[in-house]
């Protein structure tokens, strides 16, 4: 009886949580729905139905794909391509560097390891905007302005990705590495043959962290890549606000296209990302 009572209480608690979660989910989706609706209507109608609120606030009275056609017929598609290139290179290089750094902090024994990890954690508290301008000055002095290298380098050193991978590596039994070392395997072999194959979900999670940081980056590309040929999607979207006015229709269309890429990536890799977060918080 006690077990049945506890089960009933859990069901009622789950239902209450569901009734709270559903309105929250609807409210969180409404801005995205309004942005999509604004992208599908003429620019002059974007703010016409904001007050008073009506069904036309979320459902366009006149549906048109003109904003997307004009957008993709211009230079915006090159900005999207630049964003994809920068994000891809950042994920490949950033995930590899984060994995090697996490392996060293989790497995190798060397003086100052704890202090180095503490500095890494403290780096989370420093906003990138605080160092962006002096860093851009340094990159310009090294002639990395308007280059993919200049756009990619700041994003490959992700402290959060290193933290997540280190926490996962700590869950792997040290006896595996010790046995491999006794068999004559080098530390690089241990990392490549044991730790990397066991950490695929966490590698996906770390890669997603790097990807999201680079994809939504605005200030750094604005500072280091002013050349129109090197613009990324967030900067290109901001350019729709010009001196003579703002083309809100194309701005919302660009925002939908730019948001669709990370949304698709997260939907594809959501299970691995959730598994990486779950496994990084416990140690057996």
UniProtKB/TrEMBL annotation:
Residue intervals of the ABC transmembrane type-1 domain: 80-269
What's the superkingdom here? Bacteria
Its chief place of residence is membrane
* Keywords for the protein's UniProt record, in alphabetical order: Cell membrane, Membrane, Transmembrane, Transmembrane helix, Transport
InterPro entries hit by this protein = MetI-like (IPR000515), MetI-like_sf (IPR035906)
Membrane topology field: Multi-pass membrane protein
Where it sits in the cell: the answer is: Cell membrane
Under Pfam families, the record lists: BPD_transp_1
Q: Where are its TM segments located?
A: 17-37, 84-108, 115-136, 148-165, 202-224, 248-269
Task: Give the family from UniProt.
Answer: Belongs to the binding-protein-dependent transport system permease family.
Q: Which PANTHER family match?
A: ABC TRANSPORTER PERMEASE PROTEIN MG189-RELATED-RELATED, SN-GLYCEROL-3-PHOSPHATE TRANSPORT SYSTEM PERMEASE PROTEIN UGPE
User: What protein name applies here?
Assistant: Carbohydrate ABC transporter permease
List the source organism: Nonomuraea rosea
